[in-house]
Amino acid sequence: MTCACASLSGMTVLPAPAVGRFAPSPTGAMHLGNARTALLAWLHSRALGGQHLLRFEDLDTGRVRPWTCDTTRRDLEWLGLDWDAEYRQSERLDVYADALARLTAAGETYPCTCTRREIQQAILDSAGAPHGHEPVYPGTCRVHAADPGRPAAIRWRVPDETVCVTDALTRGTLCQNLPGEVGDFVLRRNDGVFAYHFAVVVDDALMGVTDVLRGADLWPATPRQVALQRALGFPTPRYLHVPLMTDYRGERLAKRGGAPSVQALREGGEAASRVVSALARSLGWEAPERVTAAELLPFWRARLAEAGFFINSQT
Ligand code: GLU
């Protein structure tokens, strides 16, 4: 077993030009937590003098609500967060198909026609994951031929490796053993929808993304994404995970949980400068009561300096 470590230590050296992105799933109206992540992603791209991309992750057609793309764009503009290019994953299916074909040609994938119930049973039978971890698919279809009568998902035959990633902001390191803690995960579902982990890896690489700033909920997904990048011969971007916003009970805001939407604040006549200020203050920044996103750049630069970034851009 090898340990392939993608750790960063000491000072972070910045390649130029940096490319960052905000990649919302248009499944509902943006709430303040989404807005805070969007703000930080924008501040990061701009603090580095880089490009900023907006990518709608709209592959999961069953969950997508198309009107939210428009609302999200308006919310971002209202908050003063611009972008240099926009993408929609649903328009890039051939790009994912090509990448999948490469892995398949290399013998790294296999079709799987197990039902959800069969997989659950296999996990129970195999004693599953260590207590408290996500259930790990035990690779049943690696050895059993797929049933030609059923639609097949495509799984990645994960390498027998432990992958470690260090977050460039928190400096935390996470190591995961791929077979033991992750398992052969799905790249394309049996309804033909490309899976999030796969599309995100292909997109970040092909869009030249150097800096992935996103919510801390995706930190546990990072080692498998790094592993997939390596299998596809893609570079690994820098990862920065930021805390999710929580409500007064300490529970994370959720689109379905009735968290107030940015749209409601915008349409209700609230001033964007006060909302931006509230987002900054929720991070512990001593921002004035009204502030623009651009005026927060010094706060983010200070945070980056604390994390060991050396910024020579004068933007
Ligand atoms: N689309 C994901 C979400 O809205 C974010 C993906 C990412 O930043 O890697 O949670």
From TrEMBL:
Residue intervals of the Glutamyl/glutaminyl-tRNA synthetase class Ib catalytic domain: 21-287
Gene3D superfamilies attached to this UniProt entry: HUPs
Cofactor: Zn(2+)
Binding site for L-glutamate: R21, F22, A23, P24, S25, E57, Y196, R214
Domain of life from the UniProt record: Bacteria
GO molecular function: ligase activity
PROSITE patterns in UniProt: AA_TRNA_LIGASE_I (PS00178)
Membrane-crossing residue ranges in chain numbering: none
Enzyme Commission number: 6.1.1.-
Motif 'HIGH' region mapped to chain: 24-34
Residues that hold Zn(2+) according to the record: C112, C114, Y137, C141
Family: Belongs to the class-I aminoacyl-tRNA synthetase family. GluQ subfamily.
NCBIfam families in the cross-refs: PRK05710.1-3 (NF004314), PRK05710.1-4 (NF004315), queuosine_YadB (TIGR03838)
Name of the protein this chain belongs to: Glutamyl-Q tRNA(Asp) synthetase
Name of the gene encoding the protein in the UniProt record: gltX1
